[in-house]
Amino acid sequence: MLRRSILRTAALAAAAVVASAGWSAPASADEGELRIGLNNWAENVAVSNMWKILLEEKGYDVELISAGKSVIYDGVARKNLDIGLEVWMPTTDKPFYSKYEDRIALQDAWYRGTGLGLVVPAYVDEVDTIPELKANAEMFDEKIVGIDPGSALMGLTEDAIDAYGLEDFELVASSGPGMTSALKKAIRQDEPVVVTLWNPHWAFADFDLKYLKDPKNVYGQGENIHWMSHMDLKDENPKVVEWLNAWDMNDQQLGGLMAVINEVGDPAKGASQWIGNNRELVDSWMQ
């Protein structure tokens, strides 16, 4: 019930943001212009900036629109956005996808074998499973540091709190960067912290972390990340659909892209640098 309430709230927020942003469907399709919905997850920031550069090299005018997942789904469904690059299937994004599946085109997977759940630094020896959090709530100040309110991962974490009897914990809504900031701070001070996290993510390369085992499988098994478009993109921009459906990245490639961006500290500059070092790979997607 709580999760459904979160999704309804997110949907209302999506409509409000779309209205306040002044988004409206273009009067006519222009194959030279593309709008990509960008949600603030590390891998999404990385690949969105990468594709902005690659498509601009082909002569497209590309705009990245920052928004939450619910807003992006609504925007693609309404053709206010052309593309969303991150759809986790079959579990994580199912509530969003089920709502809009008749109005969006789910395209091919570009990354396979994701993970998500609750994560602690590896030095936290006392806790290896989610059920063990209950007896160690004080160690974590009775807080789980989350990401964007209304995101699928936060909804699953609400489910995990119910399933494992973690009512003593407060799920603190934040953002992707806010969560990683809290994680970094705790690790610098060698303190316990539990966060909502997922892979692919650069944090697993930078820090020694561990997922807490999820015996009830609340967070599901490994998934694939797809991209989505509005229904007419294939007719309006067939080459774009062809290029994006040829796109495929493994852990090393995606991790490398995120690591460069994190090191450079600028998504556009980092993506440009990575593209320059991986020209053969990106050209293979766009033949």
Automatic annotation (TrEMBL):
InterPro entries per the UniProt record, alphabetical: ABC_Gly_betaine_transp_sub-bd (IPR007210), TAT_signal (IPR006311)
One Gene Ontology term of the molecular function aspect: amine transmembrane transporter activity
SUPFAM superfamilies per record: Periplasmic binding protein-like II
Localization, UniProt: Cell membrane
Lineage top rank: taxon: Bacteria
One matching Pfam family: OpuAC
Gene3D superfamilies per UniProt: Glycine betaine-binding periplasmic protein, domain 2, Periplasmic binding protein-like II
UniProt keyword annotations, A-Z: Cell membrane, Membrane, Signal, Transport
Iron is among the record's keywords: no
Signal peptide per UniProt: 1-29
Keyword Phosphoprotein belongs to the record: no
Gene Ontology CC entries for this record: ATP-binding cassette (ABC) transporter complex
An example Gene Ontology biological process: choline transport
All residue ranges annotated as the ABC-type glycine betaine transport system substrate-binding domain in the record: 33-275
Protein name: Glycine/betaine ABC transporter substrate-binding protein
Species annotation: Ferruginivarius sediminum
